[in-house]
Amino acid sequence: MQFLHNLGTRVGSVWDSLRESLWFLPAIALAVSVMVAEAAPALDDHLASPWWFSTDADSARSLLSAIATATLTLTGLVFSITMLVLQLTSSQLSPRVMRRFLRDRNNQIVLALFISTFAYALLALRNVETESVPTFSVWLGFAMAMVSVGAFVRYIDHMAHAIRASSIISGIGEETRETIDRLYPDPIEGDPDGHEQWPAGRPDREVAWAGGPGVLTNVSLDRIEEVAERCGARIAIVPMVGDFLPSGAPAFQAWGMLDEEATGELNETLVVGSERTMLRDAAFGLRQLVDIAERALSPGVNDPTTAVQAIDQLHDLLRRLAGRELAPEVRRDGDGRWRALLRHPSWDDFVALGVDEVRLSGRTSLQTNRRLRFLLNDLMRVAPPERRNILHTELALLDESVEEAFAQPEDRRMAARPSARGHGD
Q1: Which residues of 382-405 are buried (b: 16+ CB within 10 A; e: fewer)?
Q2: Distance (Å, rounded) from C-alpha 165 to C-alpha 305?
């Protein structure tokens, strides 16, 4: 059972990383194209090309050679365009948004189609003989080439739309909403942040992280529960998912006795990577949007409208979180006593992440100040009373920022008026 829990956690993390790779789908497509090309002689005995498609040996060789050359050229062109887009979006918006383009299924499918067409055309070329022309195999290569041309046109159109700031921002918002719905599906019941669930008193033991430094991306909480029940202990994970975990830093706190075998098993329950992911880290979505807003509000860019678009998504995400249970994730034994515990960011953490840096970066922007005020006023209406203190604090800080940033009374008056668009009435 322990092996299965660990395996499930590792597989989930590996699958998430494969979704961001440009080689995974092309590698599968390459393997499939090789198998189809090897089976082509048998297919020619049972399948026929369309009535309008006919060719001789020389024409078939020329056609397949041209297909192989053209698709290889298109593959290089697609790769170059993708790298250029990654560079532009990284410099203009945020390096964190690169992962969105790496995960883009359209880009991966286009590369897979071109590589498989190239490989198929080369392998099918071997079967063309002067006395026997595999017409169906040649026609299949021709059909793949035509599909590749259509896919290239679709790719250009897709990239022209995907590179827009509004598309990137809305895509990050959608992915974050999916993560929120997966991690925090329950409405508020009782204490909105569940602080009473965190254990009181000093732990009996701390277990240090024995692996290399990196960002905590996933946790096998079920495996930790099994270890805790076996030892009769309670175990809490010190870092939250998305936190950087240095080598030798405290990773677990235990109330109760742990044997040496248990400490080794606990280290195996954590997955540490080079960067944050959206697998179990909703705050990373807000982090990306805040980064985009800050970059847009920097003096070198000075694009408050893009910042407002990012605030629009932050508004929706915080509005969803306002009514969700954000308590630590807990595993309990049959008697209802907690055994394993993983903290999540609190409501105050999410609000501070979504508002503070944007407020400071956009302190002289009328659009930003008005849009943030609208966001906070709206959250005041939907958040439960226990979660409004942080909103009152943020509004007070926003008032102080307006007083300091705008010298003219009329500007201060305008900046103090909330607006869903950042401008107008």
Answers
A1: ebeeebbebbeebbeebeebbeeb
A2: 10
Element (H, E) at 304: helix 304-322
The Cβ-side half-sphere exposure at 224, using a 13 Å CA radius, reads 28
Going from the C-alpha of 219 to that of each of 204, 269, 349, the distances in angstroms are 22, 6, 21
**pLDDT tens digit sequence for 88-147:** 888 778 887 777 777 788 888 999 999 999 999 998 888 777 666 778 888 888 999 999
Distance of CA 345 to the CA centre of its chain: 18
Helices (H), 192-271: 221-231, 260-267
Measured between alpha carbons, how far apart are the two ends of the chain, in Å?
A: 61
Instruction: Give yes or no for a contact between 297 and 304, defined as CB atoms under 8 angstroms apart.
Output: yes
The length of the chain in residues reads 425
pLDDT band with cut points at 50, 70 and 90 for residue 78: confident
3-class SS string, 317-340: HHHHHHCECCCCEEEECCCCCEEE
Range of the domain at 277: 190-425
Is 190 a residue whose pLDDT tops 80? no
For residue 97, tell me if it sits in a domain. Answer: yes
The closest of 225, 334, 337, 344 to 280, measured between CA atoms, is: 344
pLDDT tops 50 at residue 48: yes
Q: Is the dihedral of CA 170, 350, 359, 372 positive or negative?
A: positive
Q: Could you tell me if 46 and 89 lie in one domain?
A: yes
How many folded domains does the chain comprise? 2
Question: C-alpha distances in angstroms, 390 versus 350, 373, 386, 404?
Answer: 10, 14, 9, 21
Asked if residue 352 is part of any domain, the answer here is: yes
Q: Is 301 helix (H, G, I), strand (E, B) or coil?
A: coil
Average pLDDT, the chain: 87
pLDDT at 9: 55
Task: Check which CATH number belongs to the domain holding 216 and give it.
Answer: 3.90.1170.30
> Closest by alpha carbon to 113, among 25, 43, 49, 21?
25
The whole-number average pLDDT for the span 204-229 is: 92
Cβ(407)–Cβ(413) under 8 Å? Answer: no
